Amino acid sequence: MTAESTAVEHVDVLIVGAGLSGIGAACHLQRESPGRSYAVLEAREAIGGTWDLFRYPGVRSDSDMFTLGYSFKPWTEARAIADGGSIRRYVQDTAREHGVEEHIRFSHRVVAAEWSSAAARWTVTAERVDTGETVRLSCSWLSVCSGYYRYDEGFRPEFPGEERFAGPVVHPQHWPDDLDWTGKRVVVIGSGATAVTLVPSLAERAAHVTMLQRTPSYVLALPGRDPLADALRRRLPARAVYPVVRWKNVLVSMASYQFSRRRPAAMRRFLQQAARRQLPEGFDVATHFGPPYDPWDQRLCLVPDGDLFAAIRAGRADVVTDRIASFTETGIALESGAELAADVVVSATGLVLLPIGGMTLTVDGEPVQLSDRVSYKGMMVSGVPNFAMTIGYTNASWTLKADLVARYVCRLLDHMAATGSDTCTPVAPPEGGTAPFIGLTSGYVQRSLAALPRQGARAPWRLHQNYVRDLLLMRRGPLADAGVRFTRRQPVRDAEEVAA
């Protein structure tokens, strides 16, 4: 039996999640729309979200910190591709510097939110993870910044014969603190960002590491430090350097993506030639780093200073492209007939998507199925008032989109206050087809697309994955357009007035 608090506290804005997005949303609210009361609900007991949860060896960003960092807080460390601990400290420092810490309620897992049009507010139900208590708060605006994957469970397929394997099988999302792989043979199953991060890090202590992949990924080596940032820092203060390097990286990233989509064959050749220059003579690049799909059909994997390629050159790691037939007592038997000896197996097999943290939404008593709705500007949902969700870019740094969403919410709140509006409700497009919310073909995306809203055929319902275009739309574009309706709450009349 759980205890239940009867008092309902009200805040102007309720933010769900104290990770990179949630802390950014709170800071922007204080900076750009001050005077509003707010609270941040966080299911875990620490700030940092992804960067506090993931503790596997070598965990790092797959985007540069000049774009993964906040627009208002310069990244001042030397490494542009940063390790997880440095990113966690950056988020924690930002929360402390802006006084956000005192607004966070830790161990509060949000399970439901109910909208009342009569009251023009949300009632949010959270469970106290530490005590089991049920807590309710109300808010005028609800921003969900919980990311899009499940924190307590990664994607973990069942492998034939796994029970026979004598060693540990671990998932990076739940890395054991006491796991010792020193001098052992390690097989990492997977080919995505987590796998290419793990392999060179594990290879520093392991006897040998094998990356076993069913389908390869495109992998590109980039400098761990940004040369332009290093040059400018010798002459200019950090606050002057940061926006210059940030915009340089935004434009380079956009150009690379657009080139990939318009000339995929040329980009494929470039990526494979770049990999070939980093690998030993005679290495089968086409098999192990030549995916059957076009660049950016799935997210590109970045390796700082080519550390994955260096581990392969040194003979400390290798890549095997094959399918698993079954586990054995001493390793993994492959469909080709070969067998990989292993003492430890790491299943870097991906994430489980969980939109809006798994919470349920209800509008005036009607349950909301996200898959039946159309997204508005990639951040709101048709028919759901005073609600925003933050999902970052798939082809660029997450925080670029998170910053835009947070600042747009501030614009909306100020506009509503100025016009006397109580509700802001997106409306679905009147005609035209819809498309998946995320265009990637990655397994973790395809497994969960049905749980996400759709997007429309054109703006403002279309998600373009283009920072400059979104910047113009969300920072400079009109707030009132065909995709949204602003209304005032109609006061409830008492019985005598109705009778009269």
Automatic annotation (TrEMBL):
SUPFAM superfamilies: FAD/NAD(P)-binding domain. InterPro entries: FAD-binding_MO (IPR051820), FAD/NAD-bd_sf (IPR036188), Flavin_mOase-like (IPR020946). One of its GO terms (molecular function) is NADP binding. Pfam families: FMO-like, NAD_binding_8. The keyword Cytoplasm does not apply. Belongs to the FAD-binding monooxygenase family. PANTHER family: MONOOXYGENASE, PUTATIVE (AFU_ORTHOLOGUE AFUA_8G02570)-RELATED. This is NAD(P)/FAD-dependent oxidoreductase. It comes from Geodermatophilus sabuli.
